[in-house]
Amino acid sequence: MVSLQLEGRTVVVTGAGQGQGAAEARLLAEAGARVIATDLTADAPAGLADASPALGGELLYRRLDVSDASGWSGLAGWIRSRGWQVDGLVNNAGITQRSRLLDASMADLQKVYDVNVAGSLLGIQALSLLMGSGASIVNVGSVAGLTAHYPVAYTASKWALRGLSQVAAMELGPRGIRVNTVHPGFIETPMTAGAKPEFRQATLAETPLGRSGSVEEVAGVVLFLLSPLSSFVTGAEIPVDGGQSGHGGAKSVSDALR
């Protein structure tokens, strides 16, 4: 019977030190996967080190700067040396930059691009070589990638990630590798914790469900896309945003912060 269980599968999750990434890593391990969680710190963050996966799952930690090609090569080599194939990749690592259009510098754009777009490309290039038919890649976008959201560097990077995801779905499809994108809205994470009160209030006003989302709600969609239940789903873009992007409400959020 097809299920959400991932026993015997190896999945890499980037940006797994906190927030959405940590929730994704924990849930995938609880579903039985061997999860290789990565982030910038040398040692596993407390939220990962204390996890106790059930169903035979395993949670391992490796340091990785997703913008560093040599780091990806090293991770791929480490996985290969253990005789594992990669069954899933979650490109979750991301940073934000809140400069507005006329204030953004080229350095702002490049910094965000290096992590949010190039980091995902490098991961796909390095780990797809270890994937076989049935493998699944999930890129974590944003509601900003579906709208004209005001932080221009961040928004541009998430739109670019959409293009990368679609090309990857097309190029890797003949090998049986699926590529999909989830677009979280306002999720309670360390990244959004620093948002201005005006931003929070205006965003929730634009969200039909009238509340922020949880990291577990994003992780559940990621689990579905990595599982056999989504075996004929590729090139899809799934908003996990309480309906925010469905009516294009980014303008009022932008106006409220002027």
List keywords for this structure.
258 residues, alpha/beta, 7-stranded parallel sheet, 14% strand
Description:
This protein has 258 residues and is an alpha/beta fold. It has a single domain (10-194, 214-246), classed as NAD(P)-binding Rossmann-like Domain (Rossmann fold), CATH 3.40.50.720. It contains nine helices and seven strands; from the N terminus they run βαβαβαβαβαβαααβα. It has helices spanning 19-30, 46-49, 69-81, 106-127, 152-172, 190-193, 197-205, 215-226, 250-256; strands spanning 10-13, 34-39, 58-63, 88-91, 136-140, 178-184, 237-240. Strands 3-2-1-4-5-6-7 form a seven-stranded parallel beta sheet, with helices on both faces. Helix 4 links the parallel strand 4 (88-91) and strand 5. It is globular and about 55 Å long. The model has no long low-confidence stretch (mean pLDDT 94).
